Amino acid sequence: MSHKRLVQASIPPDQGHILGIVSQSDKQAEMFTNGFLKNSLPGMSKKEIGDFMLHKAVVLKYAKKEKKKKNKKRAKGLNAKQRREMKVFQLKPEHQKYELFLPLHELWEQYIRDLCNGLKPESNPQTIQQRLLKADFHGAILTVARSKCPSYVGTTGILVQEMKHVFKIITKEDKLKVIPKRNSVFAVEIDGFVSHIYGSKFELRSSERSAKKFKVKGTIDL
């Protein structure tokens, strides 16, 4: 049997039953084909369709109208004024408890150990300093070692919020203290290593520090 005759041959009943297909008669097949071509090539006469089929290949699919894409507006976030009005960054008085942030401090300690590949006596202090400067300090226990304002010196607590110009820490007395970074030096200790942060060189958001290059030593005008 030639390839043409094989393609045009009816499917045997036993195979059609398995495939769930019923072969059409020649007349039915012709009616289906004519109807299909009329839907696929709208606006053309039967003669034009015949001429078209002789000279061009036709993709056997129905012509579908393209749906216009709707421009979806992205939801805008809150601006700075709205965040202030909603008090998004304010810690509620009932949450200003030192013990509530102790688990955060423990997580921060483990985070720093992983960041510094383990804090060992033989570790290079300058390498640790550089990594600390780019780290996230939320959960760290900070102590104001030096400040242009004497009343800040000695203040110690867990850092609960860092902004561009200030640190917010919660003390053991459950007091929320807002310490300006400028003109202050902060000490942070972990596993025997004490690092000093010069706030005047640290006035940027924590998310921006990872891409910034720091000098190990800072200066402060007191």
- The ordered H/E elements are HHHHHHHEEEEEE
- The average pLDDT is 78
Query: How are the strands of the biggest sheet laid out side by side?
Result: 4-3-2-1-5-6
Name the structural class.
alpha+beta
Taking the alpha carbons of the first and last residues, their distance comes to 102 Å
C-alpha Rg, in Å?
37 Å
Largest sheet: 6 strands, antiparallel
Number of strands: 6
Uncertain runs are: 218-222
Helical amount: 25-40%
Shape: elongated
Overview features:
222 residues; RNase_P/MRP_Rpp29-subunit; 6 strands; six-stranded antiparallel beta sheet; 30% helix; 7 helices; disordered C terminus; ribonuclease P RNA binding; RNase_P/MRP_Rpp29_sf; alpha+beta; Rpp29/RNP1
